[in-house]
Amino acid sequence: MTEILLVVLLVIGVLALHTRDLLNAIILLAVFSLLCALLFFYLHAPDVALTEAAVGAGISTFIFTWVIRKTQRKEEE
Questions:
Q1: What per-residue confidence (pLDDT) applies to 70?
Q2: What are the domain boundaries of the chain?
Q3: Were 28 and a residue from 7, 16, 21, 52 both cysteine, which residue would form a disulfide, CB within 3.0 to 4.6 Å?
Q4: Which residues pair with 21 in a beta bridge?
Q5: Which whole number is the average pLDDT over 14-31?
C-alpha cells in the first residue's frame, strides 16, 4: 500500500509541475496533500496527517486560489 501511494504521489507531483494552467496545478497540489495525509495516517501518524490535511489541502489551496483570482491564470506562451 505504501509503495502504491508513493508512486501515485510521484505521478501527481510531476503532473503538477508540468501543467501550464495554474488552477489545475493547485488542484493537483491539493490532491497531493490529501494523499500525503493518507500516507501519514497509514504510517500511524494521525496528528501529522490531520495537520497536513488542514494546512496543505485546506488553507494553502484557499490562499493559492485567492491569489490566482488576482493574477493571470495561464502562463504566457
A1: 84
A2: 2-70
A3: 16
A4: 74
A5: 92
